[in-house]
Amino acid sequence: MSDMVITLAHFCDKHGPRALLGTQCAEDGDALLLPDYPTEAFCASCSMHFPGGDTCTRSMRTRLNSMDYVSTNYPAIRYQLLSTVIRHMFSEETMTYDCAPLTFFDQSKGLNLVMGFKLPDADARGDERRYAILLTIDSRDQVASMEILSKHWEFITNSFKRVIDHIKQKRETEVRRNAKNYSGQFTPMVGTYLKGNKSKVPQNLVQLTHDDLLFVRLHKWNTFMLHQLNSLE
């Protein structure tokens, strides 16, 4: 089942639909790595971040049972497929942001299971940032793909929900922390004035959740899910 990929996607205010982190598996993980790509096309809100701030650290790899599980901001093999899927789900599908699962299939995009969610952020358009986590089965065999999805529906959706709940809880904690730190520093009138006139600052999930290890955790979660799906199959 190396034709499967789990992706965390974001609708960036500046760059539109983007993959934040895509996790794939293969017997040879080197084939999934792209050591260099145009990072100027990514801003803070649509980039991943690993601890230490090393811009050269663009991927993580875990080896389990002769398979390499690789997470990267720019999934080399399936980047074009995922870009098409992500643009489609944000722009054309009636995706909600309440973690309700959505599925869609065609011959070019394969079978996709998507769960959308949003996070509050005063620096984003509309004071919120929109995200989605999705499983893509890169196959033209709709019947076989649907069998996989239906057989493991509870495992996949519950796993996605746990990931989303963790991210949302971290964001809620950070919002409360910021509110406590800034309470009483501005009058309501001055605070409103500054908020309405300041420049929008892109922030990635590490900043929004105050969790420097968030993308490491996402890699581990995605690896666990793909490994379990491989084992169950």
TrEMBL record:
One of its GO terms (cellular component) is cytosol. Transmembrane segments: none annotated. One of its GO terms (molecular function) is GTPase activator activity. One of its GO terms (biological process) is cellular response to amino acid stimulus. This is LADA_0A06018g1_1. It holds the Pfam family Folliculin. InterPro entries: FLCN/SMCR8_DENN, Folliculin, Folliculin/SMCR8_longin. It comes from Lachancea dasiensis. PANTHER family: FOLLICULIN, FOLLICULIN FAMILY MEMBER. Residues 50-233 form the UDENN FLCN/SMCR8-type domain.
